[in-house]
Amino acid sequence: MSFRSLIQEMRDEFGSISRHSLRSRSHRGGGGAPRVAAVGPAEAAAMQQSCWAQLPPELLREVLVRIEESEAWWPSRRDVVACAGVCRSWRGITKEIVRVPEASGKLTFPISLKQPGPRDGTLKCFIRRNRTTQTYYLYIGLTEALADDGKFLLAARKCRKPTCTDYLISLDMSDMSKGSNTYIGKLRSNFLGTKFTVYDAHPPYDGAVVSKSRSARVVGLNQVSPRVPAGNYPVSHISYELNVLGARGPRRMNCIMDSIPASAVQEGGKAPTQTEFPLSGLDSFPSISFFRSKSARIDSATSQLSTQKEEKLVLKNKSPRWHEQLQCWCLNFRGRVTVASVKNFQLVASDENGPTNQEQDKVILQFGKIGKDLFTMDYRYPISAFQSFAICLSSFDTKIACAG
């Protein structure tokens, strides 16, 4: 039995119970015209939740496990999200069943976008650019095609300032303002467009220190918990090498991941994993009603970066090879990039983080052009979709002192 037919059958059953209860009340007064008891919104909601919550936990868990296993890809995976929004008991069990992207390779709830990608394999996404509105939209592919209708994940809007450029990142494609409840972070460049900082609006790990920049996000006390202040938490620093003479060659970039220890790329290494959004205006966003906790929680096993003062993970370009016949620099994107562009890149762990002085072979993030305003973005552990999107946005920015 499919999920939709199962839910419809349960709704019909509970609906008949409710109708029967109302009919009983209407005839309870004896003679005279039947009267329907007035039920307030709060009482009606309580009755509905109690009906759904009265399912035996063992049966409910079995049903939810089967739904989670059968709905592996979007758009059918929205059924899993729907289960989490039924009532408190359904939400609790669904939360236990759904695994993080690191283990499952799936993006389910919005918090998944802040969690590291899969260890085995990559998550294949793509970015659409709108030159007119200076906006960028991140989608996860629904098929093996380079780009399809996709499932929307994140949006960004470019904001030019006299001394820098900001890319505001949001969960809502229709509202990308910094004061929005769905604002989750930003990318900021310097004047030359050669150095960037990625800021998370929420603490990326336990003990993270908020930036004291004057541009820190101002939020009313009624919007966030005083225990989890919203602000600019630096999670990555990106730099492009100066190339004033415009020498032939691809861009060279370096990414220091402030929130990820260098040991994360090693066997058994761990990266900080956020498990819930802090209490904030995000709770009022319809598509993420699943998250209504009273405080931010971070995986305790991976939140020791600040206390242990480990070496930070450093990502750099994978070295391309010069192709004599094509007369260009080439990288093997395995069919995921089809148009030559100075923006194309592959990032690997720097040799500073490896056991030897050899360049790491495993590509952690790759980005490349496939159309005029269409680009692929594939990422994996230990970086998240949010971090990957921000790094790719840096490639779009105009670089006065770099070639291309």
UniProtKB/TrEMBL annotation:
<dbReference type="InterPro" id="IPR018066">
    <property type="entry name" value="Tubby_C_CS"/>
</dbReference>
<dbReference type="InterPro" id="IPR000007">
    <property type="entry name" value="Tubby_C"/>
</dbReference>
<protein>
    <recommendedName>
        <fullName>Tubby C-terminal domain-containing protein</fullName>
    </recommendedName>
</protein>
<dbReference type="InterPro" id="IPR036047">
    <property type="entry name" value="F-box-like_dom_sf"/>
</dbReference>
<feature type="domain" description="Tubby C-terminal">
    <location>
        <begin position="113"/>
        <end position="398"/>
    </location>
</feature>
<comment type="similarity">
    <text>Belongs to the TUB family.</text>
</comment>
<dbReference type="Pfam" id="PF01167">
    <property type="entry name" value="Tub"/>
</dbReference>
<dbReference type="InterPro" id="IPR025659">
    <property type="entry name" value="Tubby-like_C"/>
</dbReference>
